[in-house]
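## retry 2 of 3
previous attempt timed out at serialization; input unchanged, resubmitting
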Amino acid sequence: MVERRYDDDEVALILHRAVEATADGSEREPGKGLTLAELKEIGAEAGISRTEIDMAARTLDVREDPPETGAVLGLPTTVQLERVVPVRLEDEHLPQLLDLIRSELARQGIVEEVLGGFEWRARSGTGGRYVSIRSEGDQTRIRVLGNYRDGLLGCTLGAGPIMTFGTGALAAALGAATPFIIIPVALAGGASSLVPWKIIFGREKRSLHRVLDALERRLLDIG
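## retry succeeded, writing output
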């Protein structure tokens, strides 16, 4: 009987499930793990080169995802992400990285060449989005920034007062004539205008994470 052979995708899936099973079970002592040398030995038996394992391990050491910063009315307005990929950036890589940014963020944007890379930026009514890719010797630094302060101010200073006035007028029309009722109801209406902003910001934040992850994967593929 011929022994079954597993392709690369099946090998990766089997190893992934085996690691999960080990983590959930009692086969490995708590706090224990595998050294890089042990991972290379396992990878060699599975047909994975030691170089690929080494590069994959290095990506874990250089990943940097700072949290969002900046706030207006207690709501975040800025997302800053940064990651260092252990791949040398070459000039021929730049066009496909730029195409990837435009595809992921669905905007043409403006491109400016910088020493060892480029910077891309685009604005809309929501705010500005910026991506910079620069070479640092044998590695590449990616920075992604989203500044949505203008979008939040537009939401609160535009829709907010309209919502506040409309809610207050509705309360008055319904006979809630006393200020003790009209004012709280109006303020509640204004506060409700911030709810859509949380949805918008969450969507933009996920979008920036996606473009950062996509750029990292592309660099690792072409490197």
